[in-house]
Amino acid sequence: MRPLLESAREKLRRRKVVAVMSGKGGVGKSVVAALAALAKPGSALVDLDLEGASAPRLFGLSGRLHEISKEGIEPLEVGGVKVFSLGGIVGDRYVVLPGYGQAGAVEALLAFAKLGDSDPVVVDMPPGMGEELLALSRITDFLPVLVTTPSKASYGVVKHLAEYLAEIGKKPAAVVLNMAYVDCGGSRIYPFGRGEDARRLAESFGAPLYELPIDPSLEDYVGRIHEYRGPIAYVVRQMVEGL
Amino acid sequence: MHEWSLALSLVQTLDRWALENGVQIKRVVLSVPSPAQLDVSILTEAFDTLKRESRLEQAKLEVRVRSPRYRCRACGYEFGQEEVDQQIRQLMGQYGEEYPLHLIPELLPTFVKCPRCGSHDIEAELSIKVDEVETI
Fold first, then answer.
1. Predicted ipTM of the assembly
2. What is the pTM of this model?
3. Domain A3-237, classified CATH 3.60.60.10, yes or no
């Protein structure tokens, strides 16, 4: 018997778990996950991008360690969100892990995270379809939120992820088309195409599609994402309300 | 401090299991890898405190601390705990109370290198698991 696997399962059993994923890297999963957690008071954000943890950077928590109490990992709280990240365990250093290490880290983070009454739990997934995805699937049922950009390079990978999820009986709760357009004096310009492939993908699974604009000001909020009130946060909030 | 959260996880998990199976638990054997550096006396004390008013009330906890065998997947070198002890001591000195392998022993490859080739690509059985449960 693996007590941590069982604890992680029990901990998430009665909570809504929203997994922000893509398969492709660099499409904005971490920003979407952070803004999704911020959109709903009482959320927790668990960063399962073990080797590329972004949540600490986005929230200005780099180098800060979680306190470990008798009840487990104490959250780092910012903007009303309880943040848990491996970065809060190892500090500001690289993480390199084989598959069994990734599985152990996912189970332990979720088993020991002191979630309190947090609901929903938003999970920021790493790129790829590796051990973290398998480990999360072993632990809990989750609502997949798929993030892509209009690029064919991104869409193709996300499509494979959606097909895999369908095979294990999960359909996307939402598809997010990130970096979709630029708002130019009230009219929308789509520099990378209209994202028709992503739209068809969402329609084929009966999932709503949310277009996120390119907002250059977002970069100013890396380190204080909880203060961002721009148009991306607005659309992500709509997405969360629709879940 | 982490021994308490591990004991809590163990007691809660086994209490649920005992309830589902309609049994009381008499003895539990928990196997932990030595790099976790768990304090067995604190773990046992925590277990004995937390088991009250559960289906583990009569249970005795035995903790087996096992020394893993390691294999480097890069060069194939196989080695024992004694060859990584120095690296573990350094890590404990660096992190102190917040020693990461205490909480997640599977993180070992992030911190420990193969003593022969220096690779982090190290394989070992590092999970915390229940080896035996005796019921009444």
1. 0.92
2. 0.94
3. no
